[in-house]
Amino acid sequence: MAAKVFHNGTVLSWNEDGQSIEVLHETSILIKGDTISATGKNIEVPSDAEVIDSTGKILTPGFINTHSHLWQTAFRTLAPNTTLASYLKSYSQSSQAVKAFSAEDIYMSCLEGYYEGLNAGVTTYVEHASNNWDLDVVKRGFDAAVDGGARVWWCCALDDREDVTAKDVFEYINTLGKRSKDNHPLVSLGLATDAMHSASDEQTQHMKDKIRELDLEAVTTHDLGGPWPIGHNTPSIAANKGLQDLDVPIIFSHGGLITKENRAALRKHDWNLSITPESEMHYGHGQQTSRLVQDHASLGVDTNWTFSGDILTQARLWLQSVRNYLLVTRQGGRAVRRDDIGVLKVAAKADIVCFNGDSPNMVGWTDPIAAVVLHANVGDIEHVMVGGVFRKRNGKLALKEGEWSAFSKKFAEVARRIQAKVKVPPQPEKFMGVTEFGDVETMTTRRQA
């Protein structure tokens, strides 16, 4: 692969000594293979290098989405006003809606999710792959992670289903592990579990043994906390079960009500909280205390079919509460304990996003971080590179195979067919069958008589 140079741009570089963003104007980035080889104003450019003029552009690290369920992408616009109760009953991996999907549908749905993210500058995913009700479905979800072109920590859900058991999942991951690292260097294998709190000592030990045996690289789980009757997979519970002995990154998703005790456990064991701002606002998870643990937090998208699927929107929503640009870059890399992603520096992976600083909504900027986080949109992203390979070029997605026009047509057909099979249900009488719903204020734009 020939060397590439982003020439004469404004680079949001990483200063290792100061552990902070360093803005470098009129600076170039030299990329050899999948890695940043040099940065500076007067770097030596190989004669055969491809030079991308970046004058007036802003070069940022690729964004990192630490929580997603991309198999659901084909539901897009199906239930824009769904509640958490309706979602769990009618659209989750435990619902009847999964019967609408073939294994190939899952592949298309996940692939479109990765493409959507790449188009918006997301170069890395932690995928909570909850599509685990059938092994063919699991396999095609993994294939999409490989073919999507992003860097993915693919965490297969462990929860027992009618036709797939935890044993089946481990056996399948074992077959992947034997061929994954050499053949699929962008995809790392992990595990997703929502039964951490309820697992027996025997089940927990078996999981720990398998994580070591299969050399898995991440664990992720939902942690809602507070009054919610689900998702009590807290850092304290993980610590009490000895999961810190694994020396593997653990990512707890949501955690809007995370307690002082659990914040301490998160910090002590160098674990991470994936905050998904739009999801928590949409579903009402709560966001009372997650702002207190930003030093061990990152950002995710969650269910990209019920709201916007780009990380810029999540950053902008959360920025109004907590002003920390690093949550979508450096902190995402730290979530999976990687210091070579989410940053622009020598020896880091060449995961780079190039913004057009001359667009109508960005021109006139003097602070490049504010320009990106407060004023940029997806349309301003000209180039996206993952591991030295363009995945978006000159404003257009660069697919690993085929053209966007053909893929989008096929995906639209899949989405229409699936949505026609999935009926929008009434609100259940009780949340998760145990909790009564209370009354809420109803507002309308209809003029009153």
Can you walk through the features of this model?
- With 449 residues, the chain is an alpha/beta fold.
- It has two domains: 110 residues, Urease, subunit C, domain 1; 273 residues, Metal-dependent hydrolases (TIM Barrel, Alpha-Beta Barrel).
- The strands form three sheets. Strands 1, 2, 3, 4, 5, 14, 15, 16 and 17 form a nine-stranded mixed β-sheet that branches.
- α4 links the parallel β8 and β9.
- α2 runs parallel beside α3 and α2 packs across α12.
Key attributes of the depicted protein:
2 domains; globular; nine-stranded mixed beta sheet; alpha/beta; eight-stranded parallel beta sheet; 12 helices; Urease, subunit C, domain 1
The CATH architecture designation of the largest domain is: Alpha-Beta Barrel
Low-confidence stretches: none
In percent, how helical is the residue content? 25-40%
Mean pLDDT equals: 92
Task: Count helical runs.
Answer: 12
Radius of gyration from the alpha-carbon trace, in angstroms: 22 Å
CATH superfamily membership of the largest domain: Metal-dependent hydrolases
What would you call the structural class?
A: alpha/beta
Main sheet specs? 9 strands, mixed
Shape: globular
Number of strands: 19
Instruction: Please name the CATH topology of the largest domain.
Output: TIM Barrel
Number of domains: 2
CATH class division of the largest domain: Alpha Beta
| Terminal-residue CA separation | 70 Å
Strand content: 15-25%
Task: Explain briefly what this protein structure is.
With 449 residues, this protein is of the alpha/beta class.
